[in-house]
Amino acid sequence: MLLKFKEIKKQLQIQWPMLKWCMPTDPEYFLPSKDQVQKFLEDHPQPYDYRKGLYECEEYSMGLIVDLRRYRAENYRAEKEFSYNWAVGLALTITKEDLVHYQNFAITTEKEILIIEPQTNTIKKPVQAKEVHFILI
User: Fold this and answer.
1) Which of 16, 40, 50, 110 makes a 20 to 30 Å CA pair with 10?
2) Which CATH number fits domain 2-136: 2.40.110.10, 3.30.460.70, 1.20.1630.10, 3.20.20.140?
3) How confident is the model over 38-48, as a mean pLDDT?
């Protein structure tokens, strides 16, 4: 299933009404299933250990996006599903504890937003952040 960026932005603003800035890289995105996201994460473990000040949540989050886009390009097929990037992005959030945290998210075929914790490759339900400053999809 494909979804235009403006519809994706609406979904994100419902989840995070305080969203300050949302930057698309494409006009449309393919909505993966939760199982597809889970399989990708299982098949692509994070290659580096956490290193304070050097390899933290922002590097994990950006790395996951790069790995996913590379995987999609390497496995490109002419079918519609493979002609578009997945609706998976990264978000810069401020937690309720005032901590800055980068994390990934996916919008699934059910239009459900899932949070991907990039340091552990785990999926969880979104929680309300104090602030969401930036989203790149």
Assistant:
1) 40
2) 3.30.460.70
3) 88
